[in-house]
Amino acid sequence: MGDYFERIVDVEVSAAEAGALGARVVDWMVSRGLLTREMSGELMYSWKVEQGYVPGPRWAGIAADWGADWLPGPVAVIVGRHVHHAGQGETEPESATCPHCGTRAVIIDYPNSWEADPVVWQPFSTAIDEWIGTGTGAVTCGTCRTPTPITTWSWSDDVALGALAVEFWHWPPLSETFVAELSAHLGHRVAHHTGKF
Ligand SMILES: [Zn+2]
User: CATH classification of 4-81+159-196 is 1.20.120, yes or no?
Assistant: First the structure.
């Protein structure tokens, strides 16, 4: 119980803007009765924040019906540059695609391997660390030799880099309509993750 999450990651907002944008999204959800201002750490296991917003009286309108007695957990708003992993655990992404030439760099060659190829992964890992620390980091494509910002690479569905994420803990699946509305409020490209702690 309490170990399932659904997450929307804003993959475009800057770290400087993420706090204010996160606050606006919370205001919007509170105004719709989806959240309260009360904070709790019950039923959530986020690595990045200890507490989230307790659901409001109208939360059930945006999620699947899992029965009248279902109690969802808090909604965590995570501000700051992070690597967000879908699924379970924190494995490296399966692949990354160069924004310049479209070549897909295979980082984990499933099912032949279950671990990242260290030679392929190393420049991405370095650039991600630089991005977390400074907001910029570049990777030079192994095929076209063009260096491009790490945030412009496309990732396989299992990983997203972003400075703002909204995590719904222990909720039934969110409706597609709500996910689209939340994305529209963020006003940027998003990644949509589900997973278990
Ligand atoms: Zn390339």
Answer: no
